[in-house]
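Translate sequence into structure tokens.
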Amino acid sequence: MEKKNRYRNRIHWLTISRLVLGAVLLLATGVGFVLVRNQHVIQGDGIRAAEEEIEALDQEIELWELRIAAVRDRQELSRRLRWVQSDLKEVDTRKVIEMAPGVVDDSSVPVASAY
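Result follows.
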């Protein structure tokens, strides 16, 4: 007794190759998506690291600007010199002579020469 429908619904090699091709295309699409997404994440991490470095440098610059501003202030400078126990002495402002530019005539001043 042989079955009549035994070979009627066979899967042809063309159908199998289409299924395999579809699976390969789907797999390639998924792998491509994952690779592109990973590249975006890596670039984003690099950008974030650069931004954090820029922010740290900005903070350092601001700190140095504040230090420079503090040193330019006469009272702050004298306080800092006392704090580090410097041997420098404070300048008495009563003994400072201020000269306006252009008061001295250069032609009447003798010039020392090494030649």
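Note: DSSP finds two helices and no strands in the chain.
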